[in-house]
Design goal:
Helix content: 25-40%
Low-confidence stretches: none
Number of domains: 2
CATH class of the largest domain: Alpha Beta
Radius of gyration: 19 Å
CATH architecture of the largest domain: Alpha-Beta Barrel
Mean pLDDT: 95
CATH superfamily of the largest domain: D-amino Acid Aminotransferase, subunit A, domain 2
Number of helices: 7
Number of strands: 15
């Protein structure tokens, strides 16, 4: 199911400007959210994040159209994944920004992936560039993540763990990472080249009510390997335990805090979307 120019479409074919900067330069942003029972989980947070990313890149944000696209796609798919994509629109050859951009917004919805997967992780020599503003946005260029994930999957892993150029732990290809040390949850800070994930923010808010302290601070790979449990967070994976990182195994699926967080996000989905996540 697709949304373009104010209407839903069954097929992914639509008129397209071949000078579009998103197509030619990766000049744009996107956002992916979870639909349950025809509603979007953390709807406001997703729209706010897309608007903030557009503002950072100075792309005009069609707020009303984005809200309409999100709501109509969620209603159409029922349970699934909804993605909105915003590009700067067409432009002349070269890198200079157009003086009067005409942004392009479109959306797609697909059946949901598995929530709460139990992940195996592998490292990569590809580094997350924490100096780039794009590292903290869902910007269109994703080639590093594609190549690193392919490398990890060739090793038999489900996901890839990125370090940044300073050798600090950053994130997965499409998720944030948390480490459990006793009653403390640690996740890399945004300054280490990390996306401000909506479920990452949910965990940081929810942890205290569950009796845990949660904070963003830098982690080296050696410290991460000493954690009692690891879990990934994303809009679609939700709270995903990690069973291994290279040769090190973790009983993350049996972790008390992981189970509590999974229960908490199920309840939050129930409240916002009308029924429990399956």
């Amino acid at each position: 199911m697709f949304w373009y120019d104010g209407a839903l479409h069954d097929k992914p074919i639509a008129p397209f400007d071949l000078t579009d900067r998103g197509l030619n330069l990766g000049d744009g942003v996107f956002d992916t959210s979870l639909a349950r029972n025809g509603r979007t989980f953390l709807r406001k947070a997703h729209l706010d994040r897309l608007a903030a990313a557009a503002k950072t890149l100075a792309i005009p944000f069609p707020e009303a159209a984005a809200a309409e696209a999100l709501d109509r796609l969620a209603a159409a798919i029922g349970d699934g994944a909804v993605r909105l994509t915003l590009t700067r629109g067409g432009g002349a050859r070269g890198l200079a920004l157009p003086s009067n951009p005409k942004p392009l917004l479109f959306g797609a919805a697909a059946p949901p992936p598995q929530a709460f997967p139990n992940l195996s992780l592998a490292t990569t020599l590809i580094r997350r560039n924490e100096t780039s503003p794009a590292a903290r946005l869902k910007a269109l260029p994703y080639l590093d993540a594609i190549l690193a994930l392919e490398e990890a999957m060739a090793k038999g892993a489900d996901e890839v763990l990125f370090e940044n150029t300073q050798g600090r732990v950053a994130c997965l290809s499409s998720a944030n990472i948390f480490a459990v040390f006793g009653r403390q949850l640690v996740t890399p800070p945004l300054t280490d080249g990390v996306l401000d994930g909506t479920v990452r923010a949910f965990v940081l808010r929810e942890a205290e009510s569950l009796g845990y302290a949660a904070a963003g601070r830098s982690l080296g790979l050696d410290e991460l390997l000493r954690a009692e449990a690891l879990f990934a967070t994303s809009s679609l994976k939700l709270i995903a335990p990690c069973r291994s990182l290279e040769a090190t195994s973790f009983a993350s699926a049996e972790s008390e805090v992981v189970k509590k967080l999974q229960a908490a996000i199920r309840e939050a989905i129930s409240i916002e979307c009308g029924r429990l996540c399956g």
